[in-house]
Structure formats: C-alpha cells, structure tokens
C-alpha cells in the first residue's frame, strides 16, 4: 500500500504544535528573539516531546518555544500557510487546524488580527496547493472564562470564511465541562460547530459531559470511553466522531503503547473513529505516518482505511459541496 498516495483528512491538528523548526529560527532572527540555540537540530529536539513523556503537562511544555515567535500577523500567516503546505504535500485533502487566539497577544495584536492572519495563511495554501481547510478556535481550560465571549465574537466574523468551530483544550480535569456550559451555548448560538478535548487522560465521564452539557459534535481523543460504559453507549448512539491521535496518545501516556490503542476495537464496534496528527512537530509525525502506524498495527485493508477516511469526511465541519469532492477522490 502506498501510504503517501492515500487520500487523507486531518481533523485534529494544533497550529503551535506543528511549526517547522527552521521557521522558528528565521522568525526569531527577524524578531530579535534570543533562542537557546541557533542549531536547527537542537531547536527540533526542544520542540519534539519524547516518547517517554510522563504525562500531558510535560508534553504541553513543548509549545512554549513556538509561541514565543507567534506574536505577529506575518508570523501567524506564514506558519498557517506552512502547516497546510506540509499537509498538502502528503496528499491531505482537507485539514482543520486549531489554535488559541488568546495566546498570541503579547505584542498587542487584537483577536481579530490574530484570527485573520491564520485564516489568510490557510487561504493562501488552499490557492497554492489545492488543499481545503477550516480553522478551529481553541480556548484553554486553565485560562479565565471571561474572555471566551470576545474570541467567539471576533471569530464569528470569519464563520463560513475560514473559521468553523469552537474547542476547549489543555490539561484535562474530571468535571471541567460544567463551567463552560454558557460558553458552548453562546458558541452554538453564534453558529460555531463544537468539538471538545475530552477522554484523553483517563476520564470517560468527561466525554459524556462534553456531549450532554456542551453539545460536542466531535470529541478530541475520547479514547477513555473504553472504560466508561455510559459514554461509550452515548458516542455510539449519537455517532459522535472521535478525533484519535495515535502517536500523541502514546507520548502523553493516554495509552501505554500502540498495541493497546482502542481505535480498531472502536471501529469494529461501530464508533466513527478518525486518524489525526494532533501536533506534527511536537509528536514528530505526519498524516502519512499516522495512517501507516494504524494500518500496520491492526492489519487493516485499504477498504478498512477508506472507511475511516469516510468517517472523517462525514465529521468534517465543512459544506456539502466540499464533502462531495472529498468523497470523490
């Protein structure tokens, strides 16, 4: 099977976790930012989380370096373009990239400027490479909730023009959903789709809550419904797609190793699973690599893989015309 030539869709990819190390060096030089090293290999090593990461918190520390250079419109536009370009060159047909606008204000950018720059980068890649895409606005669970409305108001101006959804990300505690009910409700009223990071770190109850309390149409990761009967039943009944990220799940110790990853068990039992990168740089991965890992680990046929691809098409936060194009490949 030619893994690179297979059509692919990535529904769960973080912008700040997918920056080229070479770009970090160039942007730092342009912005007079002093980095720990000028050696691209050292920078790359600092950005990649080890396979022995003890937990999600340690994994998330790898985002500090890229965020330091992602504080100008030019940098954000360039990085968004490059993430989509890298994906397009490995036959990713459609991609949803998520990022937290509130993390990019250190040099005075407005939320509108931040979102606009990322959308421009994506649109340029669409024109240049033929890939299709949308942006997801992530809010971090550990940050104050009083600015979420500002992000949603600014993002609403881009709905249907490059922005598609609202997301909650960051460290996961049991029971986090309740305090975000007003935010999710406001997002839906504005016209945002909703996807929530949940069930990544051992808490299947959070998946149940994300769907019932926050109206999640998709769930980021969601793998710990494997040990939560109610959540599994709800995901199955509502056919809520899971944005699984195999390599990342092993790195953050969400699963012990790939052999015990539940993606294939879920697929066989009728859960709409999808394959995604999470963070191309931090997880040192590509969609080609993720697809190959899953196909080879679970001995999937091309037909099995295309079933997963179709799950991704069906779950994508895009219009009917784009979905028809994606199904026609």
UniProtKB/TrEMBL annotation:
Positions with a binding annotation for substrate: 14, 16, 170
Gene3D superfamilies: Metal-dependent hydrolases
Site (Important for catalytic activity): 221
Catalytic center residues: 200
Pfam families: A_deaminase
EC number: 3.5.4.4
GO cellular component: cytosol
Catalytic activity line of the entry: adenosine + H2O + H(+) = inosine + NH4(+); 2'-deoxyadenosine + H2O + H(+) = 2'-deoxyinosine + NH4(+)
Binding site for Zn(2+): 12, 14, 197, 278
GO molecular function, one term: zinc ion binding
Cofactor details (free text): Binds 1 zinc ion per subunit.
Domain of life of the organism encoding this protein: Bacteria
Family according to the record: Belongs to the metallo-dependent hydrolases superfamily. Adenosine and AMP deaminases family. Adenosine deaminase subfamily.
Ranges where the Adenosine deaminase domain occurs: 7-327
Lineage: Bacteria, Pseudomonadati, Pseudomonadota, Gammaproteobacteria, Vibrionales
Protein name (record): Adenosine deaminase
Cofactor section: Zn(2+)
Species this protein is from: Vibrio hangzhouensis
Function: Catalyzes the hydrolytic deamination of adenosine and 2-deoxyadenosine.
Swiss-Prot/TrEMBL keywords: Hydrolase, Metal-binding, Nucleotide metabolism, Zinc
């Amino acid at each position: 099977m030619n893994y690179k030539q297979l059509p692919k869709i990535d529904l769960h990819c973080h912008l700040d976790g997918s920056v080229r190390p070479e770009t970090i060096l160039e942007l730092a030089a342009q912005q007079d930012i002093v980095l720990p090293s000028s050696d691209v290999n050292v920078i790359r090593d600092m950005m990649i989380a080890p396979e022995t990461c003890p937990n999600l918190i340690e994994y998330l520390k790898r985002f500090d370096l890229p965020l330091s250079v992602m504080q100008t419109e030019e940098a954000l536009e360039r990085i968004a373009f490059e993430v989509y370009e890298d994906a397009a060159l490995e036959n990713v047909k459609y991609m949803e990239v998520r990022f937290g606008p509130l993390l990019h204000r250190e040099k005075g950018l407005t939320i509108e400027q931040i979102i606009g720059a990322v959308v421009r980068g994506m649109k340029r890649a669409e024109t240049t490479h033929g890939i299709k895409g949308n942006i997801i606005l992530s809010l971090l669970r550990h940050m104050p909730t009083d600015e979420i409305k500002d992000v949603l108001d600014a993002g609403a101006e881009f709905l249907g023009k490059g922005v598609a959804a609202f997301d909650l990300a960051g460290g996961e505690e049991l029971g986090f959903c309740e305090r975000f009910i007003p935010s999710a409700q406001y997002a839906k009223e504005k016209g945002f789709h909703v996807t929530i990071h949940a069930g990544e770190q051992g808490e299947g109850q959070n998946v149940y809550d994300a769907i019932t309390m926050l109206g999640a149409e998709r769930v980021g990761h969601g793998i710990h419904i494997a040990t939560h009967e109610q959540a599994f039943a709800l995901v199955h009944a509502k056919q809520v797609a899971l944005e699984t990220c195999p390599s990342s799940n092993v790195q953050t110790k969400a699963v012990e190793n790939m052999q015990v990853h539940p993606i294939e068990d879920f697929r066989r039992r009728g859960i709409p699973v999808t394959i995604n990168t999470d963070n191309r740089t931090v997880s040192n991965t590509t969609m080609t690599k993720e697809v190959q890992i899953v196909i080879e680990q679970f001995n999937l046929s091309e037909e099995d893989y295309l079933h997963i691809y179709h799950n991704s098409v069906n779950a994508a936060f895009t219009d009917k015309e784009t979905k028809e194009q994606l199904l026609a490949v």
